[in-house]
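Quarterly update, task 2.4: zinc ion-bound model.
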Amino acid sequence: MDGEQKLEGSTAKGRTGGRRVRLLFVLFAISLFFVMRQGLLPARWSPLPALDLSQPNAWLVDWRIAELKRDRDLCSRVLRAPLIAATPVRENPIKDGCGWENAVRISSAGGASLSVGTVSCEVAAGIAMWLAHEVQPLAQEIFGSRVTSVQHMGTYSCRNVLGRKWWFPARSQHAMANALDVSAFTLANGRQISVLRHWSGTGSEARFLREIHARACRYFRVAIGPEYNALHRDHFHYDRGALSRCK
Ligand SMILES: [Zn+2]
């Protein structure tokens, strides 16, 4: 009887120990997920290979873009020609929710001219990959022509989120230069494709816009366009904030 009780006791202890190990593992996995997603792990400690803009099917691309967030050296190593022409911008430490860290100026990305004054390294990397691996091949496939320039409606703007009431004033990702509003594309054959004019149609331009916008979700946390609300009827908003939303 004594022996049986001891055996039951040690089996119960074993079960509790097993549960503890599983709980620790789950907590570790959640912490790792959070740390990697927010780009909090210094790149030199990261188990992932540094982002390579030229890789079309890079795995865990969201986490690898996030590693650029705070690392200026890594940013300079990753944002290289011919996938992007970018130069670092002087730091403007964030005060009252506005400013930027680790930002760049862009003159071209993904083989198209794109002039952006100040944008976060993360958004710059996302734009270059999206243009090179999604937009250009699709333009070639649908129109038989490549995109030569991309038009946008701005990056940095010290303001709150528009069009939505929060119980506290929420800063837009634009207030940290962590967003880009893409509005139109010009192709090598002279064709112009704009979100405002072509999104609602049924032609090849609409198909092109809808497909490239859907594919942007891979590179950005928030990728919203005309379907999201009326404020976005003329542009795609792409950002690398903490929230996730694609529509
Ligand atoms: Zn925007």
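Highlight for this quarter: The chain has six helices and eleven strands.
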